[in-house]
Structure formats: structure tokens, C-alpha cells
Amino acid sequence: MIEPPRIVSADGMTDDEIAALYEYPSMSGPWVRANYVVSVDGAVTTNGSSTGLTSPLDQRVLKLLRDLADVVLVGAATIRIEDYIGVRTSEAGRKRRMDRGLTPVPPLAVVTARADIDPASRLLTNTVVPPIILTTTTASSTAKHNLEAAGAQVIELGEGRIETTALVDALTGLGMTRILCEGGPTLTGQLVADHALDELCVTTAPIMVCGNGYRITNTDKHSSFAMHCKHILFDDNGFQLARWARAM
Are the beta carbons of 68 and 178 closer than 8 angstroms? Predict the structure, then answer.
């Protein structure tokens, strides 16, 4: 019998108390977690970005999820749209990580079949830890060289397309088993379609968004599996943060 989710108010909770709600399970292999914020009607962006959906609690949990992860996995389109910089951790966050045997700051791992990342972008110029670029053997050699020259670690994973197994195996081979995926929908859709996603953390914003925006997963491949809700964290502004894990 599946236990009902815990319903928890974030009011008065410390960061350590919230982090305890999101601890990774004990495991011998990788655990892939995705994190999203969506509108009530399922949109993941407003005017092309997630900025209009987020809240202080959502941002607080985002930072804590990063504190618990070995690596933050992101698709190239999301890197460009959201103008990513490297992950930052606070003094408390670094202690939280080191207490768990993690490196002080997690790297960003960027999935880009064509290696089409600007080496002068903030991803490379405004970071503490150099990013990992997961690309292909068929991507431009010049693009890969320029990214390496800018400090990135470039890893080639197959020809033409990056397969999910190769992606996860590459990160696991680097000792990065706690994988936090921050999108976008195409990357998350691939993980779900290939049954590689173990967990989804989703913030529901009390907002309706019209239009034809993406949902959390964007893929032509049909796939489904059962999930169960472990907890729902809420605040006084109507935001609800649910942690969903695959039903075993």
C-alpha cells in the first residue's frame, strides 16, 4: 500500500528541514531527478521564460536541490533562453554538500548534439566550476575546440544524437550519480520516454497561462509509468511544491 503524501507548510521551516524532505534515496546506481515550475494549466513558461512563474519558495527549493546534487543537467536551448550562469552555493550550501561527501559546487552538464554553445556566454565566463559539455562526434570540431579553450570539459557521446543511456553512463562514470535535470522539456521528454527519470519535483504556481507553451515533457515517443507523491510543500502565496517518485 502506498503511503499518502505528507502535506507540509514551509512557514518557519529552516533550509536544513526543507532539504531533509528532498534527500536522495540510498542507491548503488544513478538517480535522475527533474525540477520544474508550471502554471495551474500546465505551462512551463510565460513569454518564453519560467521567470514569471517562480516564487521565493520555489527559488529556495531550487537552490537546495542543487545543494543535494552531484551535477545539474540542462539542455542547450534552456541554457540560452534562461541565460544560465554557473551554479553558486552559499557557505551553508557548501557545508551541506560537504557533509554529504559532495564537491563544494556542482557543475552544469549541458546536452548539445551540435556543441552550439557560445564560448563567450555567461555559462563559461561567470562560473565557479567549468561546465561539462555532452555532445557528439559529429559536432563541429571547431566548436568543441573553442569550448575546451574556454575551460569546458567536452565529452563526445556517439554520432549525431546523444542517447539517454550514454548520457547517464557518462555522468555516472564521473562519479556523478545524483543527477538534477532542470530542463528543458525536450531533454526531460527524452528521459521520461526512455524510462530514465526517477523523480519529478514540480512547483505549481497559482497562475493560468494561455497559449501553446510547452508542457514538462516534449517528445513524440509515447511512454508512461506510475508515480507516487511523497510530499506537498506549500506557502502562504498559494504555491504548491510536490515531490513525485517512480512507483517501484
Answer: yes
Give tens-digit pLDDT for 47-95.
777 888 999 999 999 999 999 999 999 999 999 989 999 999 999 999 9
CB 196 within 8 A of CB 217: no
The number of residues in the chain equals 248
pLDDT at 1: 67
Alpha-carbon radius of gyration of the chain: 18
Cα separation, 105 vs 82, in Å, equals 20
Greatest Cα-to-Cα distance within the chain, rounded to the nearest angstrom:
55
Query: Which residues, 6 or more positions from 88, have their beta carbon under 8 angstroms from its beta carbon?
Result: 105, 128
d(CA 124, CA 208): 35
Q: Which position has the grid cell 531527478? A: 33
Among 168, 163, 177, 205, which Cα is nearest to 51's? 205
122 in Cβ contact with 85 (< 8 Å): yes
CB burial string 62-97: b at 16+ within 10 A, e below: bebbbbbbbbbbbbbbbbeebebbbbebeeebeebb
Packing angle of the helix pair 91-99, 56-68 (nearest 10 deg): 40
